[in-house]
Amino acid sequence: MRTIDAMNFVVSKLKTAFEELTESDRLKVEIPESIEEYRLTHPNGAALVVYRGSDYEDAGVSGYVVQKRNMEIGVIIAARRKSERMHPEEYIDFVLDKLSGTETEAKFNSKKMRAVQDERIKEENGVWFYGVTFAFPNDFVESAINNG
């Protein structure tokens, strides 16, 4: 699976998950054009899906480059604190519950997504930013194998 496909996979899972919430608790799910210049426009907040990098490990296949690729996909929660709706910190647990254990298409690697970190990023003008990073198991296979 390509990097953008993994990010879109996470976007799709989150969009479906947020549909379970009441309208007043839903966040907009998107891949932002820029993190540094991001401006929250949704009245409740947003869940921003970003690629954070990968690490690789040999998969033990001789003659070709086949590696276990653990991609790190981040979900940045940007939410306004309002007493009548979910608090920004509650979205951390919501995202953890909805994505942890989700199966990927990896063949040579563990198939389930797992959380590796969460953190408070900042508060700016009443908008709280938290990050949750997930390991997204994937494979890297030399193009000579993929192209036959």
Largest β-sheet summary:
5 strands, mixed
Number of beta-strand segments: 5
Instruction: Report the structural category.
Output: alpha+beta
CATH class equals: Alpha Beta
Output mean pLDDT.
Answer: 91
Question: What proportion of the residues form beta strands (DSSP E)?
Answer: 35-45%
Provide the low-confidence segments as ranges. Answer: none
H and E string: HEEEHEEH
- Note the gap between the termini: 17 Å
Task: Assign the CATH superfamily.
Answer: Phage tail protein-like
Major sheet strand order: 1-2-3-5-4
Described by the principal axes of the CA atoms, the overall outline is elongated
Count of discrete structural domains = 1
Helix content: 10-25%
Number of helices: 3
Examine the coordinates and then state which fold CATH places here, giving the name of the CATH topology: STM4215-like
Q: Nearest-angstrom radius of gyration?
A: 17 Å
